[in-house]
Amino acid sequence: MTKKLIAYFSRADENYFGGAIRYIEVGNTEIVVNKIAEMMEADIFKIEMKTPYSKEYKACIEEAKIHKFEDKRPELVSIPDSVDEYDTLILAYPNYWGTMPMAVFTFLDAFDFSGKTILPICTNEGSGMGISENDIRKLCPNSKVEKGLSLIGSEVENSDKEIENWLKLNENKKTR
């Protein structure tokens, strides 16, 4: 049995939901992670920035845009001591400017994921995975990055079956 780590970035506060901005107390990606935690045994690590993005949606996307286009690596609140004990990393994040939030880049930069399997999950409102899978491959060139799961953020409450099927598909790949 492989040991799994779920590392995720999620943002509550004002969020975009198919044309409207709404305030939420738990981010969509965190909802997905909680669902996964009910389906499998895994350790969980929340990727949090020391200086979080604004609670207001429009300000947040501008801050995220600057981080992306300046290739910034925001400082994190904490980081695990090691990921050596894990065989599989489930990496969950929202789509920010066509890829992962830069805090996820900071997290991936901190470790050597050689020989590990990475399973990306991206919440979005229609923009899909963007180039995040390619970015993960560039940051973790000696890991096996499987096909990610794209979930519509405003529909994550009803995504159990989709998540379960994706997890089973990836578990079956390991037994072949």
TrEMBL record:
Domain Flavodoxin-like residues, every copy: 26-167
UniProt xrefs under InterPro entries: Flavodoxin/NO_synth, Flavoprotein-like_sf
GO MF: FMN binding; oxidoreductase activity, acting on NAD(P)H
Domain of life: Bacteria
Listed Pfam families: Flavodoxin_4
Name of the protein in question: Flavodoxin
Species in which this protein is naturally found: Peptostreptococcus porci
